[in-house]
Design goal:
Helices cover 29% and strands 20% of the residues. By secondary structure, the chain is an alpha/beta fold.
């Protein structure tokens, strides 16, 4: 490749090489990628889009990979020689254009897929439902759509985007990055586990990595906390949060409305909550059944023999204590079982002893639970995994257990060389909450991949109405932020990262 000038890439502050197109954008529409790519690809449009106030000049390519996986690839006129693919949320079904545009503004060639279905036409998990007549389905691509949603559409779109990059710029990307949270976090881990050659660096946020387990949790929790005497109504969340902070806030050395590690404070609903009189209920107290519901939610999913099947929710993320029921219900109706249960399935019939085993085939297609990431390490890949401690629906304990399993599989020192986990006190699902969850997650991955600078501490901010009101160090797990004892508690410089305490 010819020598080109180096560009300092804005917030990334990393040297990179600019490249310009070697052919016209419109020519991509008539380029056949099927033979080289190995799949049926239809390019529906390739248009050169003039620069706007929000985006640089770019080539916008849209199309479909068989059978129904739509994609968008955006190729900026001034390219930083990097490729970025962005993930989806929920059940996907839409192309993540806003995230693609964010990448393009930073100079990346970027792409996203809808994972093979249309969320408006097939809401929830209905995209994987063949129909009531299994022998003559009205959705004949249902089985393939499940696989596409699980992993294949992302992989094929990544491969196709790289072929387009080579065709447009005349060279391959020097580095490739994945960025995603929630479903996007699961997709990124699935790539690392199945196709480690696709990306050099991964930003993995709050991954729904054990999707079958998470949806089982949603139904399990709702059965006792979503209705009946044990129901935890939203109006109780403020009382629950106050009791948790009263017990746990100051234990990390500073009373600031944040708890560095909620699992260490010993919050016990039976001891730390105001009990309602047996004949009454109000937002300010909890009856015996509600206390038992909370204990089960914090403890995790267990079968009738007491065996734990899925980790519990940490206290403190209680804004939606029975969060995820709608996602869980559509999953159990249309995806979980073979054949699918169908729209008439009643969640009251869920059997915690027998139904999880019936999801084994689905688990193979959609769960990203393989802890051996040796192939990522061998090719020099890096993974930055983050999760909010106050995530109300996706348990951060799931992320911790996966990270611990990876360390057990590959060795603690060996794992730490390429895979690190960051837990954010007070942050909700992917963002939000009272914590300092506004973090540039991609920049440290780029520095790690391209400069060998491993991230040990990141700086997070809490932003209100566009103003930063607090900053705090976000420490690589298992380290935790400790107040130095002097200075403003709203400034990261007055904290340090140290090993965990009991």
């Amino acid at each position: 490749m010819a020598t080109r000038k180096l560009l300092l890439l804005g917030a990334l502050a990393t040297a990179c090489v600019l490249a310009a197109p070697v052919r016209k954008c419109e020519e991509l529409a008539s380029t056949s990628f099927a033979k080289e790519f190995g799949a049926d690809v239809k390019i529906e449009s390739a248009k050169l889009v003039a620069a706007t106030a929000n985006l640089p000049e770019l080539c916008d390519v849209r199309g479909v990979i068989w059978p129904e996986a739509k994609f968008a690839v955006k190729l900026p006129a001034s390219w930083n020689n990097r490729f970025q693919m962005v993930g989806n949320g929920g059940w996907a079904g839409v192309i993540s254009i806003a995230a693609v545009d964010t990448a393009v503004r930073a100079g990346y060639a970027a792409t996203s897929t809808d994972t093979g279905h249309d969320a408006q036409k097939e809401p929830g998990a209905t995209f994987a439902y063949p129909g009531p007549n299994q022998t003559s389905p009205n959705n004949p691509n249902a089985a393939r759509k499940l696989i596409d949603h699980g992993y294949l559409a992302v992989h094929e779109t990544a491969l196709l985007a790289k072929k387009m990059i080579r065709a447009y710029y005349g060279s391959d990307p020097q580095y490739s990055y994945w960025v995603g949270c929630s479903t996007g976090g699961r997709q990124g881990l699935m790539e690392a586990q199945r196709y480690p050659e696709d990306f050099d660096g991964y930003v993995i946020g709050a991954p729904v990595l054990n999707l079958t387990g998470l949806q089982t949790k949603s139904i399990y929790n709702y059965l006792f906390a979503g209705s009946g005497p044990g129901q935890i109504k939203p109006e109780k969340s403020q009382t629950l949060s106050k009791a948790f902070l009263d017990k746990c806030d100051a234990l990390d050395g500073v009373k600031d409305g944040l708890v560095e590690n909620p699992m260490k404070c010993g919050f016990d609903p039976a001891k730390d909550l105001e009990r309602c009189p047996s004949t009454s209920d109000s937002p300010a107290c909890f009856n015996d059944a509600q206390i038992q519901s909370l204990q089960k939610i914090y403890d995790g999913v267990r079968d009738s023999h007491g065996r734990r099947l899925f980790p519990g929710m940490p206290p403190g993320g209680d804004g939606a204590i029975a969060n995820g029921f709608n996602l869980g219900e559509t999953f159990l109706k249309f995806i979980a079982f073979h054949p699918p249960a169908g729209p008439d399935w009643d969640y009251h019939t869920f059997n915690i002893d027998t139904d999880p085993a019936r999801m084994a085939a689905t688990s193979l297609a959609i769960d990203a639970t393989i802890p051996d990431l040796t192939a990522v390490k061998m090719r020099g890949g890096k993974i930055l995994h983050y999760h909010g401690w106050s995530d109300p629906g996706v348990s951060p304990n799931m992320s911790i257990e996966y990270h611990d399993a990876a360390m057990k599989t590959m060795g603690a020192k060996e794992t730490d060389e390429f895979y690190r986990l960051f837990l954010v006190p007070g942050m909700g699902h992917c963002q939000g909450g009272p914590g300092c969850g506004n973090v540039d997650w991609l920049a440290p991955v780029v520095d790690w991949v391209e400069k060998g600078i491993a991230p040990a501490v990141l700086i997070g901010a809490h932003v209100e109405r566009g103003q930063t009101t607090r900053t705090r160090p976000i420490c690589a797990y298992p380290n935790e932020a400790r107040y130095k004892g002097a200075g403003s508690i709203d400034m990261a410089e007055n904290f340090t990262c140290a090993g965990p305490t009991q």
